[in-house]
Each structure stands twice: as structure tokens, then as C-alpha cells.
């Protein structure tokens, strides 16, 4: 039986709020071109959960990780 990872476990691991995570995942799943595996795995009215190591789980992680702030250009002339 494959290992299942839930949104709750992912949120605890990444230290993010589950409500914010669900909002981000809904937005990401609605963009099928950018996140095809996540869009295929999403079924309305079911818990967010993935098979550990699947493409959908990797896309979910990528969308939940905080975006890296752009660093200002600090080169001196």
C-alpha cells in the first residue's frame, strides 16, 4: 500500500497555515498548464492528500513553499 501524505502533515512540515495552504492549492490546481499533476489529482469535496513522492505531491510542495524574495541589485559602480 502506497504511503499517503496529507495536507495537515505537509503544513506541519513546512510550518504554514492550513487555510492559506488550501487557498494556494486551489489556485494552483485551477491552472492545469502550470500544474498538470496537481490538477489531475484534485477532486472537489475530498481531502487534500497525495501518494508520497508523486508528481502531484511535488507540485503541491512547490506551490506551498514560500516564494523567494528577489534580491535587490547591490552591485557598485
What can you tell me about this protein's structure?
This protein is mainly alpha-helical and 77 residues long. The chain has one domain (4-64). It has four helices and two strands; from the N terminus they run βαααβα. It has a two-stranded antiparallel sheet. The longest helix is centred in the N-terminal third of the chain and has 12 residues, at 18-29. The model has no long low-confidence stretch (mean pLDDT 90).
The gross shape turns out to be: globular
Query: How many domains, as an integer?
Result: 1
- How much of the sequence lies in strands comes to 5-15%
Q: Strand arrangement, largest sheet? A: 1-2
Please report the number of helical segments.
Answer: 4
Q: Main beta sheet: strand number and arrangement?
A: 2 strands, antiparallel
Low-pLDDT runs of 5+ residues are none
Give the helices and strands as they follow along the chain: EHHHEH
Average predicted local confidence, pLDDT: 90
Termini gap: 60 Å
Which percent range fits the helix content?
A: 40-55%
Any idea what the radius of gyration is? Answer: 15 Å
Amino acid at each position: 500500500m502506497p504511503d499517503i501524505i496529507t495536507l495537515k502533515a505537509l503544513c506541519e512540515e513546512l510550518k504554514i497555515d492550513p487555510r492559506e495552504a488550501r487557498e494556494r492549492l486551489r489556485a494552483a490546481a485551477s491552472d492545469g498548464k502550470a500544474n498538470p499533476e496537481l490538477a489531475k489529482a484534485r477532486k472537489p469535496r475530498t481531502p487534500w492528500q497525495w501518494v508520497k513522492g508523486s508528481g502531484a505531491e511535488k507540485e503541491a510542495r512547490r506551490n506551498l513553499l514560500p516564494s523567494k524574495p528577489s534580491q535587490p541589485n547591490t552591485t557598485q559602480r
